[in-house]
Amino acid sequence: MSQFYQKYDVNFKRVRATWTLFTIFILSIFFGCDSKKAEILRGFNNSTEKEIEIDTIEISPSQSSQIGFFQMNEEAVFFVDQAYAIIEEFNLKGESQGIKKRELDGPEELQGISELIPTMEGFIIRHNYVFYQYDSNWGFVGKSVLQFSSDVSYDELMDNPKGENIGMYEPQNYNSKTSELPDGNLVTKIDVEHPIFNAFISREYYRNGKILGKINPFTGQVVEILGTRPASFEAFRFVPFHNKMDYYWTKDDLIFVTHEIDSLIYIYDIDWNLKETFGTAGIGMNTTYAESQSLDVAFESKYFYDSRKNEGFYKDIFVDEKNGLVFRTYRQGSNRQDLLDETDNPLRIQIFKEGKLIGDFATPGRFRILGKIGEKYVADGYFDEQNEKQGFYLLTIN
Amino acid sequence: MKNKIKILILGSLCLTLFTPKLTATDLGDGIGLAGVAIAVYGIVDGNCDDKRTEGTLQYRMKDGVCQVVNCISFRKICEPVLPKV
Question: Can you give the pLDDT at residue B16?
Fold first, then answer.
């Protein structure tokens, strides 16, 4: 019964939200103001209207292939061009502070860049299974190879896989996120694609498969795997194209988790005890998911692309610990068949304060909050391949 | 013998009738778990994770990208097209 009331409540909120947004949209046509670089968006809750402003800061990197991403630390924004394997630093005005690292430059012979991870001591670059460590001046410190060491025999792992077998996991490379923990270890999203323990055909995968791996960056060893998916996955046969999740690990070791098919945000402690849930369904989401009971569909990329472009799902999470704000993006889904990739699937961002939704805004297709400098949230990223432009976003809440 | 055939037919019929119907889009026909395991074991290299430290990586097609994965992955082997210019 409680599920019924929850659904009814969500639907009622959706209708109310849609009408209110429609009213705000009409009013904004009459009273809204234009800005060349900034986009001002209005959201609401029951009593307070909120506004956000998204500025696009275009940059002119020394070299750009249009294949890359942005990252930041407490002081600067970094443009990572993955094709040239170059990291260039920018200030918040978009002014270059110089190239800081490039492929094959230095004793470490950097082979490429999958991720740039800011740390307390400087930076770590992950390229596939290798971690390259640097100090705050980009001086090379050391490197290690990521190791998912197995504590059971290979035959045992193949014949009798269990969720706690570290040896069968791998990094989740799609929308990857590795971050440094307060204890100096790294944490990253993980996945498992064992022949009989995987997202396409295995209930055990959804019940007992782990989702995060804790890594000693100096040895490369995965020292712990943790976290499981919530019971909401039981509602589906199998949803292999939406098995992904995102997390935010706070300074006091609370872990905020969002899963693609679940409107709830889960907060766990370090022992994965559930502390709290909250969340509101997104507006106008297509949640009719393609389900599978066969491994055949894994070998046909079309199913994967269609699911990512046309279905609605929750995506990235960011927590402003100081102000008690939680930001979560979601894709609405689309009926259009001509979308190039997932980034064309309409994206919106929800803002929660103390578990209550205080805003829900449309955002650019690749919008992903990276962190905060001053009062501005920095987000990845603006890429216009046709006009060869790129930049990062600055979000301000008014 | 006839009884065995009857049991087989009845068993198949029961399986068909009581297999859960999918409410959302179903992607293709299901295949048995044993068949899946046999089909994919052929591409699993028992020592492939050791090769990672030697510099030989295991590329498989996953999520639309040719990427490095765990050596037990059931995915098909692929040639990486590195994003180089």
Answer: 42
